[in-house]
Amino acid sequence: MKMKIKYFLMLALGLGIATSCTEEDLNPTLAQDKSIETSINTVNDLNAVLIGAYSRMQPTAYYGRDVIILGEVFSDNATSNANSNRFVLEARMDLLATSAIAETLWAQAYGVIASANVVIGAEGLEGDQATIDHLKGQAYALRALAHFDLVKFYGQQHVNGGGLSAPGVPYVTAFRDNDALFPSRNTVQEVKELAYADLQTAKDLMSESLNGTSTEYITTYAVDAIEARIANYFGDWQRALDASKSVIDSGVFSVVSEGAFLSTFATDGGVNIIFEISNSPTDNAGINGLANIYQAGSYGDVIALPNLAAIYDDGDVRGATPYDPAVDEPTTVIGIHPNGTLRNVGKYPSTAPYEDNIPVIRYEEMVLIYAEALLETGDADEALIWLNKVPAERGADLYTEATKDNILLERRKELAFEGFRFHDLARTGMDIPYPDAILQTHEGPEYGSYNFALPIPASEADTNANVPQNAGY
């Protein structure tokens, strides 16, 4: 059943609209202040506010499109053909502090954080304490995930040798804090540790028995999966191993079969879905969402690069086959259109009414994190077993050796069009490949370039002296 996005208190709260994480921007109006202070009294009230946090992950500015597309066009997977003049500057990696996408992603993620902080800070509630704790645990996990998304894009860890001591993003832990009107940028190390701490708190508060069946809410398994993703990004291999193994050992999920792979992206839930963003026929990003930007039509600006299509084995369901949208149903993820353009037609496939849920965490990612962590902790034989669990269900050739290159290759194959490629290149210290001088427009920035981070929005840097602008902008 689709998540019912009922704002209750949160309809009035403009948290997701704020363009700065300063205290002034994260505060509600006086009337809204009164609503918050007097209206969160029961577990049902708390749940309504939490749903508001989930709803703020859905718009175009966050998981509804931009956070995913940026991870593709910043890499060697995709580019913009400027069909409707969308993602042109992004594909060139030529953004400014005044660029809209830098501002809207920042604002939307901090809106999620603000909503989560309302849930975390609520006190004196009526209702079952275990249920209250479970809801608050979800808010802690959402807060960790949103800050991690922010530091991936705005942190300076991959710029000029910045590393973990480089400026990250402000880690905001209270909805209103009069002692922190203008929060400072935490270091990347601090953001990482605070996210881990939030995830541990989520684990302490949540109960597996209260998870429910919907993958549109954070579960105890999703908390472990978020931890595994963060640990994988930062190279905390034992933590990545333990967290991904916890998801695997739950027995709740499995690698989806070759025959069911494409349908996974056109239906809700599924054996491989750990957490997804809700879309319904009446509540979605519409023409501004993922389907309309990937597929031919009024937008259709984001196309796949031939270099990506070339990495797949013959018969791999994730590869490329001829596809005429007027007459065909997709049989592979990449469709070769009659004009020769390569497009993602298999993931987020539904145009109007744009009701496909958006997978945020799939089990296949956990399997590949587990394989990489096994390799990094010295068990290459076991790593090979887990690495091959994914291609075995895709009609692809199996690997004969577990190497870092092979694991990254399989991640590229499996997670293409889902926003991972740029971050995989960054976390492994790689230059951005430039295999296509005709279609690619960013010309392959070298690792360490200022292009490896978005600019801090001008609206933030200009009003908050504690958030200095990123290098190069």
UniProtKB/TrEMBL annotation:
Q: Which CDD domains match?
A: SusD
UniProt subcellular location: Cell outer membrane
Keywords in alphabetical order, please.
Cell outer membrane, Membrane, Signal
InterPro entries, from UniProt? SusD-like_N, SusD_RagB_dom, TPR-like_helical_dom_sf
Question: Where is the secretion signal located?
Answer: 1-23
Highest rank taxon of the organism: Bacteria
Q: Does the keyword Signal apply?
A: yes
Q: What residues does the SusD-like N-terminal domain cover?
A: 32-230
Q: Which GO terms describe its cellular component?
A: cell outer membrane
The residues covered by the RagB/SusD domain are 324-473
Pfam family of the protein (one): SusD_RagB
UniProt lists the family membership as follows: Belongs to the SusD family.
Query: What is the name attached to this protein's record?
Result: RagB/SusD domain-containing protein
**What species is this protein from?**
Salinimicrobium sediminis
